Structures are given as structure tokens and as C-alpha cells.
């Protein structure tokens, strides 16, 4: 059950390509990152994947079949693929949280009993069970975003697209979202994240694509795509802080903070050991 994109081009206006002949294969990772600066084409890509936009040329294969844009095909596609838009307001259809999450589930014919269970489960997962009977417009931006994520969790999609999942969120909510993404991945849901938050991508994606003005300029295992700093800078991005620190300290490049501290503490202990030994020798 996977997306494969070949030679996808998308054009909103004449003489300007929002996506220029791109190729992607989402079987290459479990949590896939798509990074790029403002206007690089990330949202356009996601809207093509959801069938909201139709490729100008090239094709998107899902499960080895070309995506079709008739009502029935899109209905089937969206049973498997869910999206959380950057702006949670875009995703709200009903005034009450419960009904809003229930909407998509009712749409695919799930019974009310199961819907109730799924809504509880999904809201628990985003730490938002308190919102269940609240009107959505009473919620803050970050709370709305969590409701939007609960909606896709409740759908039990096989693939989830997250457009800037942590933009505008405080550190606690950001950590919560990271945990949710890790949990989804553990449950074999493929997660595709678009972001210009390099730290987020470095932390959770195992495979990453870099978009620059509609072109894919780099792709690979996440640890490897950040090796070429010039390409990152050229794409209007920056290195994740961890990579920057490791690089400038001439350390090996670590994938997580814990390994860096472990390495540093061992180094310090070593230095301490040598210092003690040298004192022993002298005395
Ligand atoms: N509805 C539209 N009509 C015309 N041009 C558009 C439209 N939407 C996007 N574009 C153009 O397409 C290009 C890609 O935009 P897109 O929104 O996909 O970028 P993005 O990477 O998601 O940006 P951001 O990080 O700001 O969300 C930009 O040059 C943008 O100006």
C-alpha cells in the first residue's frame, strides 16, 4: 500500500512550475520527511497526493495504480490516506468536536458505537479528551490542531500526511505530536511530514526529501541528507542544531541528543582518567 510518484509536474500559472518533474518512492522509509522553504512546493505535493489537485503531467501511483479523480476513487483513496492541513481551521466542518471527528467516520459507514469508541481513543491519544463536548471555536490554535490529528487517528488510515504538524505549537504540544507520530509509525502507519523545522525532521524521519523551488535537490536517509550543508543553505534551510553542534565540535554526527551526551561524558571521563594517571605518575 504505497505511493510512488513519477515525473510529477504541477503548474498553477503559466511559466511557473510549483513542482518540476519530481520522483518519490515512499516505500523508502517509515516516517518520511519533505523539507523545503516557503513556496518550495510541499503543500502542492500533498494536495496532489490527496487528489485535491490533478497533476499537470506525470503520475502518482497508489498501490501500483494511477490515482483517479472521480468521486468513488477519491472516496476509496481517502479511506487509506488521511491529511492534517497546516491550518486546522481548514479541516473543521462541524461546530462540536465530537461531530467533527465523527463526520469522516460516518461518511465511510462506520456504526455509531464504533465511532464513539474511536473518538474516545483518538482524543485520548492527543491528550484532548476534555474537548469532546466542546464547541471547536472555543479551542486554541494548538488544541484545534490536536483535534485535527485526532480525526486522522480515528480514521485508522494506512498513510497519514502531516503538513507542518508542529508549527505554532508550544514545546509540550510539540513533544506530544512527536510521540503521536512515533506511535503511529509503531502501529505500521506510514507518516509523511512536510516541514521547515529541521530539528523535528531530523528527530523523527528516517528518509528525507529536500524540495527547492519545486525540484527535489536531495534525498536519502535523514542522517545523510544533512551532510551537504551547501545544498541545505541553498534550499533556504539550515542544519538541525544537533548536526551543527556535532559538525563544529568535530564529533561524529549523532542522530539524537542522548548519544551526543553519552559520547561527551565518556570523553570527559577519559580525560579525567588520564589526568589522574598523570598525577599518580608524578607523585
Ligand atoms: N493557488 C495558487 N495559485 C497560484 N500559485 C500558487 C497557488 N498555491 C501555491 N502557489 C505557488 O506554488 C508554489 C508552491 O507553493 P506551496 O504552497 O506548495 O509551497 P509550500 O512549500 O507548501 O510553502 P509553505 O512552507 O509556505 O507552506 C509557490 O510559488 C506558490 O506561490
Automatic annotation (TrEMBL):
Boundaries of every ABC transporter domain copy: 3-238
GO biological process: cobalt ion transport
Source domain of life: Bacteria
UniProt keywords, alphabetically: ATP-binding, Cell membrane, Membrane, Nucleotide-binding, Translocase, Transport
InterPro entries in alphabetical order: AAA+_ATPase, ABC_transporter-like_ATP-bd, ABC_transporter-like_CS, ABC_transpr_CbiO/EcfA_su, Co_trans_ATP-bd, ECF_ABC_transporter_ATP-bd, P-loop_NTPase
Bilayer-crossing regions: none
Topological category with respect to the lipid bilayer: Peripheral membrane protein
A GO molecular function held by the record: ATPase-coupled transmembrane transporter activity
Record's GO cellular component terms: ATP-binding cassette (ABC) transporter complex
One Pfam family matching this protein: ABC_tran
Protein function: Part of an ABC transporter complex. Responsible for energy coupling to the transport system.
Family: Belongs to the ABC transporter superfamily.
Protein name listed in UniProt: ABC transporter ATP-binding protein
Organism (species): Romboutsia weinsteinii
